[in-house]
Amino acid sequence: MKKKSLVTLMFAWLLLFVMAQTGHAASGSTSIYLDGKALALPENGQVQNVNGNVMIPIRVVAEELGFDVNYEKKTRTVTIKQSGTTLILVINQTTASVNGSEVKLPVAPKLAQDTTLVPMRFVGEQMGLQVAWDNTAKAAYLTTPSSGSGSGNTGNAGSGNNTGNGNGTGTDGQQPGTVVPPADTSNLAKVTGIAFDNNSLMIAVDKNVTPNIFTMSGPERLVIDLPQAQFAEALAGGAPLDASKSGSIEVTEYPDVSKVRYALFSNNPSTVRIVLDLNHKVNYQLVNENDGLIFVNLNTDPSQGGGTSGGSGKKTVVLDAGHGGSDPGAISVTKKKEKDFNLAVVLKVKELLQNDPNINLVLTRESDTYPTLSDRVKIAENVKADIFISVHANSGSASASGVETYYTRAASLDLAKVMHKHLVQASGLADRKVRTQSLHVTRETTMPAVLLECGYLSNKNDDALLATDEYRSRVAQGIVDGIKEYLGLQ
Q1: Is 220 a catalytic residue?
Q2: Residue 7: closest CA among 357, 291, 269, 212
Q3: Of 60, 113, 308, 342, which one has the greatest count of Cβ atoms within 10 A?
Q4: Which residues contact 101 (CB under 8 A, 6 or more apart)?
Q5: How far is CA 157 from the centre of its chain?
Q6: Which residue out of 220, 250, 453, 485 is catalytically annotated?
């Protein structure tokens, strides 16, 4: 067993956040600049030119400006409120209501899946924004009256239907089509992972970040901004961000949240925004100890308002694939890496338990990443795990063979005995007994915690066995059987 030397947490279950286009979309990637700041657009929720009218995804702009936007699915009605002005638009209808008065629209609002596209000029002017469109750069410019432009010429923002002007006049004070250069990115924090589990949002970062968290209504949302931050090249699990640096996670097992959306919200200053789409108002607790993990916990007292909050009522099991990333763990006699065996077994356990109605399984890593030992402990503590199990393969003399189970605290002994019994049965290897040792993940956790050594990579026979899919499947099933016996779920 090798000591871990790890750096940060990467984990996420990422679904691409795509929204279908409607009408005649402007070709290629498009941009929206609000007071000179680029807004992040979903890959398929781009600005569109429909019959000479510029259409923008209203939620992107609304979340920046604080507009109250509500979409009524049954009637397909969009209501936008701000500073005493109420706009009511209906999908595919060319009439709208402005403070109760009927107004003709240049083009009807469109619905692209869950993205509502509205005519930029109409909405902008009704809400007091100056608007312009640069057809060459495929960029929309919106300027708030009090923002200034940095150059003192916000008055030339134009009318918003300058769709054919190749010279691009009428912007927010920047040269038309010129992308505002981002600030120096060398000192930005990188977001390396985002996940939602046990009714909590978990964000992994590689530097200290001070989040700004606030709520929005119509619909209900919880917004977390991470200033001076950007995404890592890829989030954990090998799942890429889309071209516009955005993504989402569908949430199905918790009553408070329907989706987690995230995007590079601004380039200058670089800001990552994460939005929880809520089913109702909730209470929340932000936990940020500047140790690489940020938690937003929704498991708060429902008596304080915000509907029924809390977890799913399942038993929470944290499963830890030892080592990973830059730390390979032990190296076998045939040059195989322990980290690969550990992860393969953990992913097989996940497959066996992911549909179990009584177990909420949380993984410390799902790919070749390297959470620190303290990160692994913190994950278990923050999700209030019932048990913690770390999976490893051992190394020693060439003659050493068999399986062992380690624990540190007396409260973990019963779990160790149950897990070891099933590990011996599943592996068919020699029983090297339950042992006590002061290991970080079994010592610093407060729930019952064990570390399983599933064979010796330094032994040629064990090494050959550990490399087979059949053996890994047997060990995974043994782990599942042990978990269920200990938790009384058989």
Answers
A1: no
A2: 291
A3: 342
A4: none
A5: 36
A6: 453
pLDDT tens per residue across span 402-454: 999 999 999 999 999 999 999 999 999 999 999 999 999 999 999 999 999 99
What is the spatial distance between Cα 247 and Cα 263, in angstroms, rounded to a whole number?
6
pLDDT digits (tens, 9 = 90+) for 368-377: 888 889 889 9
Per the structure block, which two tokens stand in for 14?
Answer: 């990422």
Q: Three-class SS of residue 368?
A: coil
Q: What is the b/e burial string over 96-105, where b = at least 16 CB atoms within 10 angstroms of the residue's CB?
A: beeeeeeeeb
For residue 464, the SS3 value is: helix
Distance of CA 304 to the CA centre of its chain: 27
Q: How far is CA 373 from CA 324, 326, 344, 349, 410, in A?
A: 11, 14, 19, 21, 21
pLDDT greater at residue 285 or residue 217: 285
Per-residue buried b or exposed e for 283-316, using 16+ beta carbons within 10 Å of the residue's own CB: bbeeebeeebbbbbbbbbeeeeebeebebbebbb
> CB atoms < 10 A from the CB of 469, how many?
9
The mean pLDDT value of the chain amounts to 77
Instruction: Tell me the pTM.
Output: 0.51
